[in-house]
Amino acid sequence: MSARRALRLGILISGRGSNMAAIARQCREGRIAAEVAVVISERPEAAGLVTAREYGIPARALAWPGAAHRAQFEREAAAALDAAGAELIVLAGFMRILSGQFVAARAGAILNIHPSLLPKYPGLHTHRRVLAGGDRVHGATVHFVTSELDGGPRVLQSRIAVRPGDTEETLSARVQATEHIIYPKVIGWRADGRLEWRGELPWLDGQPLTQPLLEDFDA
Ligand code: GAR
After folding, report:
1. Which of 63, 90, 205, 206 is deepest in the core (most CB within 10 A)?
2. CATH number, domain at 135?
């Protein structure tokens, strides 16, 4: 383990939490200078909460009984994140839309991963839409979060080839395997002070990213 101070992460999940687990693993192995301070889900039954506790990470379920309760969830989440000293909020399969107010108060300090090559296919059912569109390539995007759904400045994308016979399930599995590589990588850049969001664009190593970086997994 290096002497770098670990960046404290607050991870929000809604389900399985495989991205959260990939990030936690890299933190634990000292491969990125970060530590998962808290995991929060709006779904008490989220399997990722159990996984987080297995990693020794405090994990909290916070109620979101309906859209009208978003403000309550956000108040409780903000309190839990602050109490844990979270410096970077990581949305990892968090399937709710945070308010513009919550996001604006944390500009540049929230990352998301989305299973498509944004700006293509924001929203749900990305694998189905890739197949319906006859696309030859697919992938995932890590981006800073703004109030625009899946619309914030993009940092890094993974790209895979769509193969004959692919289904939503096979695409989901291959895209997720790439997510587990690119999301910890971006968090590591952030933890090393190499990545920031200035004005409209992300900057990496002092250079503006006018286009997201692209990692090809089927080249
Ligand atoms: C991931 O594939 C992530 O890209 C997607 O949910 C999955 C969560 O998996 N996120 C979104 O669709 C957000 N728009 P995980 O819980 O196993 O990390």
Report:
1. 90
2. 3.40.50.170
